[in-house]
């Protein structure tokens, strides 16, 4: 089975490995190298690095809308195109090229959380469960019928980064199941997505990382988890701006104005919220590294009573 794989970030790498085990990956498509790091030198995507290491030809078009790119893809004679967090829109002409069309590994239980940031939005919304879908792609954004899915509970303390890594592996498993069926001559039965329950996972914006102390502590704690490791929540605390890597909500009544420092101990830094208290566990000062609340308190002796 001739597979063309299209993907870009770390999330797609486990799926590329499975595709290479279950079929012949004749080419990899990935985003062009981008400037990154302090020196702003060009950096290859994780998928490109994996493909080069496996000796797979790599293509990096800026778009798949031009006829030359489409003819290049057609010449590869793919049986299937697998798309995982590629970052480019596939036009109808491209979707029609592979014999079995294009499959997409998506990190949510569709139709919930279509779009760019399904993992973080699921945590932010307080979802108890998420999963991965293997979807037959069509022209709409994540609207295609679902071929296979796997569900998983979201841990109460699980961060966006931890869930990302788990779903990347789970997505590879689902893809492997689908490829195994196809190789056996069994095409997974497509299940149209229901019209109800559609939610859009908008791309993360750094401005969202600024915590609003007027919000309930439960919501802020979920945002802290979702935005770890990026963009990382931040807020003013006791006269300095802290990035917040870890926090929990405490169900505690108080009469203080939102944003008031209620107390600081080795257990955490308690901040009054619109409802309840947010206890900061791991923070980062400007220009510093992530530290525990106890270490922060050692540096802020002015906050220690007596």
From TrEMBL:
Location of the Formyl transferase C-terminal domain: 203-300
MF GO annotations: methionyl-tRNA formyltransferase activity
InterPro entries: Fmt, Formyl_trans_C, Formyl_trans_C_sf, Formyl_transf_N, Formyl_transf_N_sf, Formyl_transferase-like_C_sf, GART_AS, Met-tRNA-FMT_C
Keywords assigned: Protein biosynthesis, Transferase
EC number(s) per entry: 2.1.2.9
Transmembrane regions listed in the UniProt entry: none
Family annotation (SUPFAM superfamilies): FMT C-terminal domain-like, Formyltransferase
Superkingdom of source: Bacteria
Catalysed reactions, as listed in the record: L-methionyl-tRNA(fMet) + (6R)-10-formyltetrahydrofolate = N-formyl-L-methionyl-tRNA(fMet) + (6S)-5,6,7,8-tetrahydrofolate + H(+)
Binding site for (6S)-5,6,7,8-tetrahydrofolate: 108-111
Residues annotated as domain Formyl transferase N-terminal: 2-175
EC top class named in words: transferase
Keyword Oxidoreductase: no
GO cellular component: cytosol
PROSITE patterns with a match to the protein in the record: GART
Family: Belongs to the Fmt family.
Function: Attaches a formyl group to the free amino group of methionyl-tRNA(fMet). The formyl group appears to play a dual role in the initiator identity of N-formylmethionyl-tRNA by promoting its recognition by IF2 and preventing the misappropriation of this tRNA by the elongation apparatus.
UniProt name for this protein: Methionyl-tRNA formyltransferase
Lineage, opening ranks: Bacteria, Pseudomonadati, Pseudomonadota, Gammaproteobacteria, Lysobacterales
């Amino acid at each position: 089975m001739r597979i063309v794989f299209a993907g870009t970030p770390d999330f797609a790498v486990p799926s590329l490995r499975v595709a290479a085990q279950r079929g012949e990956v004749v080419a990899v498509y990935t985003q062009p190298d981008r400037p990154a790091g302090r020196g702003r030198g060009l950096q290859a995507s994780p998928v490109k690095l994996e493909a080069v290491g496996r000796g797979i030809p790599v293509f990096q078009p800026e778009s798949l809308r031009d006829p030359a790119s489409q003819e290049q893809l057609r010449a590869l004679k793919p049986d299937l195109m697998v798309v995982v967090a590629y970052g480019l829109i596939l036009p109808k002409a491209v979707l029609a090229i592979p014999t079995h069309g294009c499959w997409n590994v998506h990190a949510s239980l569709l139709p919930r959380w279509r779009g760019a940031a399904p993992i973080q939005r699921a945590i932010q919304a307080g979802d108890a469960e998420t999963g991965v879908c293997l979807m037959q792609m069509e022209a709409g954004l994540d609207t295609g019928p679902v071929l296979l899915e796997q569900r998983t509970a979201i841990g109460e303390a699980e961060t966006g980064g931890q869930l990302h890594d788990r779903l990347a592996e789970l997505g590879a498993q689902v893809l492997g199941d689908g490829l195994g069926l196809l190789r056996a001559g069994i095409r997974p039965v497509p299940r149209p997505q229901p019209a109800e329950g559609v939610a859009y996972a908008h791309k993360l914006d750094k401005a969202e990382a600024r915590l609003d102390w007027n919000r309930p502590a439960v919501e802020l704690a979920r945002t802290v988890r979702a935005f770890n490791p990026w963009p990382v929540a931040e807020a003013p605390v006791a006269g300095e701006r802290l990035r917040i890597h870890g926090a929990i909500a405490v169900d505690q009544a108080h009469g203080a104005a939102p944003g008031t420092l209620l107390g600081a101990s080795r257990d955490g830094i308690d901040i009054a919220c619109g409802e309840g208290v947010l206890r900061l566990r791991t923070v980062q000062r400007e220009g510093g590294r992530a530290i525990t609340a106890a270490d922060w308190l050692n540096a802020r002796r002015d906050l220690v009573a007596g």
